[in-house]
TrEMBL record:
Residues 67-250 form the AAA domain. SUPFAM superfamilies: P-loop containing nucleoside triphosphate hydrolases. It comes from Luteimicrobium xylanilyticum. Signal peptide: none annotated. PANTHER family: P-LOOP CONTAINING NUCLEOSIDE TRIPHOSPHATE HYDROLASE, PARA FAMILY PROTEIN CT_582. It holds the Pfam family AAA_31. May play a role in septum formation. This is Sporulation initiation inhibitor protein Soj.
Amino acid sequence: MAGDNNSESRELDPALTLPAAHDTRAELLAAMPEIDDSTPLAAELARDVRRRIELEGRTLPRPEQTRVITVANQKGGVGKTTTTVNLAAALARSGLHVLVIDNDPQGNASTALGVDHRAGTPSIYEVLIEDAPIAEIVQQCPDIDSLWCVPATIDLSGAEIELVSVVSRETRLRRALDAYMAQLEREGKPPLDYIFVDCPPSLGLLTVNAFVVGREVLIPIQCEYYALEGLTQLLKTIGLIQSHLNPELHVSTILLTMYDARTNLAQQVASEVREHFAAQTLRTTVPRSVRISEAPSYGQTVVTYDPSSSGALAYLEAARELSERGPVTAGADRAVQEEQVS
Ligand code: ADP
Ligand code: MG
């Protein structure tokens, strides 16, 4: 089972970590002055410092088996790519081995991870359509050693249609990934701990390939008015994939993104989501943050661009939660899927 802490053997990048001893952490926290809410800005800063002390240098548990997490929501702009790259970076920063598969023709995840994805760069397109091995395509991210990316270029925009006439069109990605993991093992290289697949905003063949590849689906939900619309369709699609192509597929995680605690609407959406998906929804919510939206223009995740910003802290906390609680089992969401959110 995932969640066992056997990560002591992992080497941490000393530049990125502070001493992590429990005593040090406790001492630092105890030394913090108490600040009440009469000075809101100071109180917020103090909260962020506490969160940083809690998170810095923490080693996250290494899952026993590779966890493959497909990040999907057919709505655009809900935070799929932002969530993919920042969770991946947060986990990799603690020494885990993480692969991001950019499965969206927009190539936004490739941009945020700083990997080359100009037209003509070998990419996920060649993997899906031309049977290219992932090993020949994958690129190491410049900022974090244990983070890799299979980039997407504009070529992928034709793949949805080209896939229709290709043999075993739904399982192309799975085969390529199985072959890659077997190759890593053969070559004595460390196994991947996490694989994230970033999906386009549709439920076409690219997303179907991503649903066949692993067990877990992570759905980012933006806390706004139409948030739950479309969720029924998404759950139905996941149910179909479950019955025909991948029995183990389930919604393991829901993350509330762009959350503005000051608005009633965000609070309502959040409580509705928590009611329907109690087991899956992470306690951590990701606030709206300028730093999060700026980071991709520097070819970075917010976790590397401004690690002490509230946006980075939220993703670091979400990554910690995701890894420490392990994968929520397939049964937990069945009841919810049967109930059908509308
Ligand atoms: P998707 O992949 O679902 O289409 P993105 O992750 O690309 O969504 O996010 C859509 C836009 O919102 C991007 O410009 C991104 O930078 C921005 N964004 C995402 N999350 C946040 C956040 N928490 N705060 C501010 N901007 C955000
Ligand atoms: Mg995206």
